[in-house]
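Weekly modeling sync, notes
Attendees: S.R. (lead), two postdocs, one rotation student

Agenda item 3: backlog of single-chain predictions. S.R. asked that every request posted to the team notebook include the full sequence so nobody has to chase files. The rotation student volunteered to paste the first one in as an example of the format we agreed on. Action items at the bottom.

Example entry:
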Amino acid sequence: MSPAGSSRFAGSFASSLAGLLPFAALLLIPAATANPYVIFVITAALFYSMVALGLNVIVGLSGIWQLAQAAFLAVGGYTAGFLAKEYGISLWIGIPAGAVVAALLSILLALPTLRLRDEYLMIATLNFGIIAQILMTNLDQFTGGTAGMSAIPPITIPWWSNDAGLTLTGAVRPDQQYYVVLIGFVVTWLIVKRLQASPMGRALRAMRDDEIVAQTMGQNTLRLRLIAFAIGCGLAGLAGGIFVARFQSISPAAAGLNNSVLYLAMVIVGGSGNLLGVIVGASILSTLPELLRDLEKYRLLVYGGILVATMVFRPQGLFPERMRSYVGGRAIPAARQGER
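Predicted structure, as returned to the notebook:
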């Protein structure tokens, strides 16, 4: 191998190794602290990051605004829970099955609605989320009604220490819950990261920045929007399955509009299109209520004030996506791209 080739290989290996360090650090968190509350808060941050990363595929990468992410999360959760409770199917199978069902349902929703734009599409997806929550409340024989579905069999690692396997969430131990959510987070991160770096990801960003230009370059923008919508909603379904594995229950409240708005706020506050920013936004908005708990009745007021201040003084998000300028080939902030 030539010196130049060796240098490139070493640089690539070092970059890959550096990319694994955060995940290695995440593996050690339960060992670093014995405080179950701290583990619970970090677990919640990872879970919300999962949901926000999936929504970022739709909103940040593709420029499609939707308010039904919570509904697709609930669809994935109910699918995984129903298969596990009624048919005894392991959650290792039920969780990806829930993601597939959510993705397929999103395609059925997208086919008649993705030709809509901006606020009209948001209203259409908002209505779908409301209808989904009503159906989950009224289809008692499948969903358990208002009380939801409970006593879902826990997820297990087969053949661990005995023939029955190791039950991860049956005892509701925070460290075991943490690793279940961490698996889902890593899978979601790898999928979104790979999509963003792929030709499909570049086509989605081109469509987001200027759909007419993307069409003139031969891109089928309707197909791109459909794929992005299915992937983002499928990842929401995956998060729903992880939710069920974590709590062994799910209710129609999981599909509530307030949850969809919260997930969208996480993407916007962190920085739409920036994966690290989305994770930071999800972590901040999921931990802020815990940090403000001592304020009691003023907690939600302060929380809302922080959100409003962020929107006013940092509308592009805390970590805006950096795009490459068409003029000069240099990187410029996304907020300044529109000035050219």
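Discussion: group reviewed the output briefly. DSSP finds 15 helices and four strands in the chain.
Action items: rotation student to repeat for the remaining queue; S.R. to check formatting next week.
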